[in-house]
Amino acid sequence: MVFNSVEEAQLFYNGYAEKLGFGSRIGCSRRSQKKGCDHLIRRDFECAHARKPKPDGAGGEGVLDPDVFDVVDQATEATSECQNFGSKPVAAKRNRNKLKRHDCKARMSVGLKKEKWEVTIFIEEHTHPMMSRDEWTRYYRSHRKVPYEDYMLIKTLHNRNADTSLIMATLGDLYGTLRTVPYTNRDVANIRTKFRNEVSHNDMSKTIEYFQKLRAESPQFYYAIKLDENNGVRALFWVDGRTREVYRKFKDCVFFDTTFCTNRYDMPFAPIVGINNHMQSMMLGCALIPDEKKETFKWVFETWMDAMGQDHPTCIMTDQDQAMAGAIDEVFPGIVHRCCLWHVLRIAKDKLGTLFRTREGFEKEFFYCIYGSDTVEEFENMWQLMVSKHCLEENEHLNTMWGCRDTWAPAFFKKNFFPFTGTTGRSKGLNSFFKKLVHPQDSVWQFVKQYEYIQETRLDREDNASFIGEATTSAVWSSYQIEEQASRFYTRAAFAKFRELMEMTIAYSIYPVLGDGVKYELHRNDPRAKKIRIVSYDQQENSYMCTCNRFNVNGMLCQHILKAMVHTNVQEIPEKYMLHRWSEAATVCEARCNKEFTGYSVIPESNTLRYNALCKMMNKLVAKACFGPGSYKIIEGGVEYLNSLEDNFRLSGGMTEEETAEETEEAHNNLHNPPQSAKKGRPAEKEKRRKPAVELRQEEAKKKGTKRKNYACSKCQEPDNIRRHCPYEELERKEQADREERLRRETELTL
């Protein structure tokens, strides 16, 4: 039997071994001894159970008594500890399963003769039984080979942060069942580990190379790095060219948060998030930073402004971090800085929870003071009345909230643009989306690649929303002309908000107010509602004003002004109330490239693109051939013929270019990776949410706090007692149960 290559001979013998039920391996090889010739001339393939088993006690001078083993091991361990004192501890040796050796003589030898590999020795007999079940044979190492197409699929799923069990389940679906997959779960896990370790030493170098490649493709792409004294990358900032173009239209409101950390260096991820015309979150820039100090935030904001041409944002929302606030005051003087209301109220519930439970009506008054006040004066008056009514002038947390009320209370931001939100939930939603795609042990280079994928998903959502707005018509709620005008102007998401406001107009009754000017009072058709809205109209300037000030906050007319327009039969909304940033025209539309059609003969540039193109071609062919045995045989013969052509082309030297799976360049080798933070134990699958400095300080204060106070029961007022275990409460529950039982019996007797 003759083979064209030694690899072909190995595949043949390995396939033969798999069918019979044993494993194979390379036994020995021999190279030419001629001077100047160092090529392979012989190779043996043998059974995996070849060679003689090791005798008991091999490796020592004598066979020790088993009772002495433990003592010897302890002495050896103690000696090793003394020798390794002060050095890095050596990991414990793994207890591996060893393959049984039966001194099996089955083998096949091939030798090189006239540029062909000829079988010289073939021994068929084995000294051991074959594997008892055929499906167990696939666990031999020689049969656990990952094909190239499976390797690329595993890499694709790995890059999308699919866990190993999900990858194996997907492969099982492709192979029919999981038991027919020719490799194991451990093989896939090892491949994934290899992917993560490929960029361990040149992580930052590959990242900078990738950024330079993006800049070469798009000159508007911007990135900046911050180095330490050892030339190590400590911070990284980047933003793409399209974001820099649309920033000037959506800079009116941005969100900044650092509550997410997901990379092997524990560098916090700091995205700068905005809102586009489709009311979708968009990234206006992002950074990986070493810490949450004022100097670090200042560097991020200054770098961001360098990328945006020193065009400062109008309004920004963050959490209550002092370092972040200090950096914003220095870099953006005069900007409207608002703290996230969710963080403020969450802390308030922790600090004031006892008062909410024990003071009747206090909780309702507290939240009504925050959400029900329209002006600063109204908020301050309601707050002072609430504090004095419940005698809470000495409450520390209420005084703290009062001292910084201008940073979080909604009444202070009634004239600033924070559309349909009062929290940094958009940043947190983006972080939540990142968690699905990023692994805690991913490198920065992998993180940046995932960032590019997320940007693609955002652009795809935006394109889909633009298509819906251009190709379809929106359902209107009424036949008013102002609603028809809004449906033609706004994007579909913005018009959905406008339609909700139009529907809310029927919940109000409108009454004219006598006096100077045109004014209307709007009363909600609900006896519980006490708030009266005043809508004013200036005929000379054709302008409207409402006491709720929601047009300034949301950039869209409120339901109160819309009710007044409907009442006065207004046919067209003034142009100044139709904000351009909510329109379809606000999105920058890139000109389409009028490329001539060149057919399908263009060869893709990379291995991955060529593989995908060929898969699409073959899928169409296979879809036609799978419906009958005749067409199946035709395609089967064609595939064998194509395989022979490809093998001949490869042997003839036609395959001169082979691309590796990963790009390897040696530039920027002088850049060092950020220092890693040592962690004990195995890393978790999902990294916990990175807490801001405010929460960390609160937790430290709780730990340093004194002994817990003894609260009295709200029922019996006894100290060291809680209402859930109060004896009086338990007695009342028992009496109530007895009354219900007695009533049930009386009812049964009556019936």
Q: How does this structure look, described?
A:
By secondary structure, the chain is α+β, with helices and mostly antiparallel strands. It has 23 helices and 17 strands. Strands 6, 7, 8, 9, 10, 11, 12 and 13 form an eight-stranded mixed sheet that branches. A hairpin with a 5-residue loop joins strand 6 and strand 7. It starts with a strand and ends with a helix.
> What share of the residues does DSSP label as strand, in percent?
5-15%
Helix % is 40-55%
Number of helices: 23
The beta-strand count equals 17
Oligomer: single chain
Largest sheet, in brief, is: 8 strands, mixed
What general outline do the C-alpha atoms trace? elongated
How would you classify the helix and strand content by structural class? alpha+beta
Stretches where pLDDT is under 50 for at least 5 consecutive residues are 59-69, 78-88, 590-601, 655-667, 677-683
Distance between the termini: 99 Å
Main attributes of the structure:
23 helices, alpha+beta, single chain, elongated, 751 residues, eight-stranded mixed beta sheet
